[in-house]
Amino acid sequence: MSTTRLLTLFSVFLFSFGTAFAQTSTIAVAANMKDAFIEIAAAYKATGKSELRVVYGSSGNFATQIMNGAPFNLFIAADEQFPLELFSNGRTTDEGVVYAIGKLAILTKTSSGIRLLDSKTDIAKAISKANKIAIAKPELAPYGRAAVQYLKAEGLSDLAKDKLVYADNIGAATTYVMSGAADIGFTALSLAKSPEVTKQTSFLLVDTKLYEPIKQRMVLIKGAPQESVDLYRFMQGHQAKSILQRYGYTTP
């Protein structure tokens, strides 16, 4: 085979590879969604779709990264604030949609000896007994913000404030409890219900009247490839909603 033909074939290969790479969807997913989204992504792929690049983290960090040009195509956030800020700054195709409403839970490791009972008095006792209480940074993570609202609403802020340890996202806060680094933690119900987490912990669902509704919105970033658009639509379908509901979310 001639050198010219080899170079031509190599050029075609590079072009094809580059085009495929450029069209691979990169999805930013809020940490509270990790277990549910793993199932959703598998169901989506089963429809004949290609693999997705998925990154989990805090909604606040993702919003900052997208504003600075990070190559995400779809942002599946844990609240409305950050997606709507991106929209107002011209980064998204539109305002997106609310795909789920999340719930806050209090988590403790079974071996800690701390019992979570559903009364303000009993929660105060648990907080008093705990050495450390894990919470996601409220400026970055909506579930951290909801936890702060709950503590204030129940008059428990002063009791808890010197024991709080802050994580970058709700997944990390949950890990603090599972590892024993914190005796109690505030987490998403979806993570508390995860099979891996339930093996080692127990949880108490927080009264939804004690914090602002956690409306989770997703938005397509401008220039998103068709794979991202298809996933965005899939997230609004019956199959994805069924998975979300199993993990404790309410769906529109």
Distance between the termini: 60 Å
Estimate what percentage of residues fall within beta strands.
15-25%
Helix/sheet category: alpha/beta
- Describe the oligomeric state of these chains in a short phrase: single chain
How can the largest sheet be summarized?
A: 5 strands, mixed
Helical segment count: 12
What does this protein structure show overall?
There is one protein chain. With 252 residues, the chain is of the alpha/beta class. The protein contains 12 helices and 10 strands. The strands form 2 sheets. Strands 2-1-3-10-4 form a 5-stranded mixed sheet, sandwiched between helices. Strands 7-6-8-5-9 form a 5-stranded mixed sheet, with helices on both faces. Helix 2 (34-45) links the parallel strand 1 and strand 2 (53-57). The protein is globular and about 50 Å long.
Key words describing this protein structure:
single chain; five-stranded mixed sheet; alpha/beta; 44% helix; 12 helices; disordered N terminus; 20% strand; 252 residues
List the helices and strands and how they pair.
Layout lengths: L2 H21 L2 E5 L3 H12 L7 E5 L1 H9 L6 E3 L4 H8 L8 E6 L1 E6 L10 H10 L3 E4 L5 H12 L3 H4 L3 E4 L2 H10 L4 E5 H4 L2 H4 L2 E5 L8 E7 L5 H9 L3 H9 L6
Parallel strand pairs: 1-2, 1-3, 6-7, 6-8
Antiparallel strand pairs: 3-10, 4-10, 5-8, 5-9
Helix pairs in contact: 2-12, 3-4
